[in-house]
Predict the 3D structure of the following.
Amino acid sequence: MAGRAAIIATGQTFHKSRRRDVNIVELIHEAVSACLQDAEMSPADLDAVLIGNMEHFEGVYNADLWAAAETGAYLKHAMKITTGGTTGASVAHAGYYHVASGMFNCVLCIGWEKQSDGDTTAGLIFQSDPLFERSNMAGAIGTFALAASEYMNKFGITEEQAARVAVKNRGNALNNPHAHLRRAVTVQDVLSSPMLASPIKLMDMCPTSDGACAIIVASEEVAKKKSPNRPAWFKALSTRHDQPFNSDLPLLINMRTLRDAAKDAYAQAGIVNPIKELDVAEFYEPCTFAELSWYEALGLCELGGGGKLMDSGATQMTGELPVNPSGGVISTNCIGATAMIRVAEAAIQLMGKGGARQVPGAKTALATGFGGSFWTEITILERD
Amino acid sequence: MKQNDAILISSQVLQVSYNYSAGPVVSKFLVSLRDQKKILGIKCDKCGIVYVPPRATCGKCFSEMKQWVELSGRGRIETFTSVHYPEPVQPRGGPFILAVIKLDGSDTGLTHLVGEAEEKDLTIGTKLEAVFQENRTGHILDIKYFRPCRD
Amino acid sequence: MMEQAGRQIELLEMSAPANFPYNYSCGKIGSFFFKKLRDEKKIYGRKCPRCKKVYIPPRPVCGPCFAPTDEWVEVGPGGVLECFTVVFFGFLDPMTGKKRPVPYGYGLIRLDHADSRIQHFLSENDPKKLRVGMRMEAVFNQEREGKLSDIKWFQPVE
């Protein structure tokens, strides 16, 4: 029987395109220090350190060893996890499993990426199939362009509806001091931004950011006795993988992994009507079209209804279920950290520490992670 | 593709250019090698350890380190080996001597090349001194190698 | 440069070009597929005995059934364009170490008699000349080497 576990602290860097003022381990250290400060803890309080990034993006491998001094992992149990875009969520989930197993009490989880040190599109091409896909695929932008082409055609979704996602999320980012892009945009700005890969325009797509995020996952005993923050309890977790080729998936963007993981997570959490029962959600939306489609996959509306849900205002800060109060991935994307930022921001909402981005009275929060050929990690958190 | 009876092999090359930021602490160390031919260590105020190469955080006690220590460039061999196999990513073709060197005034070992010496001349404890490159670029190989002390 | 305690600090970057050669085995299934492409200009999919799906790219195991595929089925060379993009942004191609030439079109094509899709280049690089649902056909290179690029691209059929 799994024990209870909670997120008791979070820490993030201030994200930018190029953090030339620090090297990788110094960047990681900023998030770790912020998180330990939030927990009022030192490394002596930790019994494990878990870390993840996309190694081939920077060409820097084994950060679990490499950053041992800066993470507080010196002579401790440490482990590295790499699962693609989902990495940060996988590390958070691994933190939960460490604690829920009863074998660890206080686990530091870290996600990081220093994209300016490497070449992300080249890295993404390189992780696709060497015989069938490397020669033609164009990184995340190309993959989402194919997905958006299919999605628009099948359901009549418009570029304007997608642009509204950028307007919403980039607007929300103004309330988040940690967001990378903090400038409001209009539908017209998005529509007239440079075409990257039709129909994806510059402002439809997430940026590349340097940054790191850390959380502390603790047992019930530690969470109740030592945490200065209101604990954000893990309520449900679910992970799904799919076939290796993007071309295998029947409807790319609608992600059957997300649909299936959501069904599983809602069953674990006893959620029947997610748009009513969830108070806040943080999506890993690499592009505008993805957020619309994932409203559908997560059961917030019917299949093909993502554009209409966006138009209704239900996912705005003032709506029934605010989605991405942090500004989302469209505003900040340091890949190995990105899925953990979703979990951390969900926890921040439940701790009541969201400041200008706080959703008043949030009690149940959902975070998604997206990776590789459309696989998924879902986390649902709740507060007492 | 090469034909090998039934199975085809696809020969490919991964080519990516990485650009690693050294950060302020390592940059200071490398700039000092380049401009002054000086090897700097960094000292932890709390536990007293002097690290070479320098880093911002003391692994042992998790404190921020700010105290720079200038070292003489001399030290002793802690362990060494002679490398005989070729490997494209190595700084030079074999055979060459690689050693962990504990510089005087430092508490950690620095891994570097040993030159102007043969394997038979060396032993653990042999005193070494740094020899610098003529043209220095802000790289660890601005130290050309360490050689046995002449005095 | 960055400023720290009122003094300018020079910040260094280390450029580290990576160049890793490797030999990827096409395996039995891939070798059959690429030899048929090279020698006969034919495209073959692999069929699952349990769910009867014909997979392209061909593979030894059907993921959903976890059953070994056991039959070659000729697919294409015609099919339907199910989604597409024209890539305009410039990026480094790690396969060549150089910028990949843009613009170029690529898409997912459902070949006749196949149940999954193939991702490949399109002859058109103007999004206005492409539409979802178009009939497409594989165009083969004269000189073929046993690679996916033996199919030059898919072009619209009038």
